[in-house]
Write a structure and sequence with these properties.
156 residues; Alpha-Beta Plaits; 4-stranded antiparallel sheet; binds guanosine-5'-diphosphate
Amino acid sequence: MTKYLCIFLTLISSLLLAETEKTLSIIKPDAVQAQNIGKILSKFEENGLKIVAMRMLKLTPERISQFYAEHKDRPFYPALVEFMSSGPIVAIVLKGEDAIAKNRQLMGATDPTKATQGTLRALFAQSTTKNAVHGSDSPQSAEREISFFFTPAEIY
Ligand code: GDP
């Protein structure tokens, strides 16, 4: 009887501790151009991430420079800004249990040659710059990046 009570309490506490988070995903210009939007959205939904906001837009180099400001001194920054402003992107807010880590896991490594089989970058990326998707890497980034694209009223 005590054993079953322990199992029950463990289940209840893990349910209560599992955190529902929001994270920002971007389908980058290469994946939009290659008509992979639908396949990528399906992966999110199949893996328990709910789409609660979404918009297609094309960013100016100035705007994308602000988004990636933390990388401004890196050698790849000019190519990144040029690529990210080269065509439309899809900005998405995903919601779910441990959404930030779950999305990062689904994305795979930055360099697609190092990405685990079955991840979005292994499936859809062309190179380290043209790597199909972006995902917030911490709760602080998620908050900043979500508010970069969406007002609270646009998130459902
Ligand atoms: P992410 O979180 O996996 O997207 O990686 P980072 O935040 O470190 O970098 C942002 C983006 O810059 C990446 O998704 C790539 O598009 C690009 N990038 C990062 N590192 C490199 C690099 O070493 N070479 C090139 N060409 N691009 C890079």
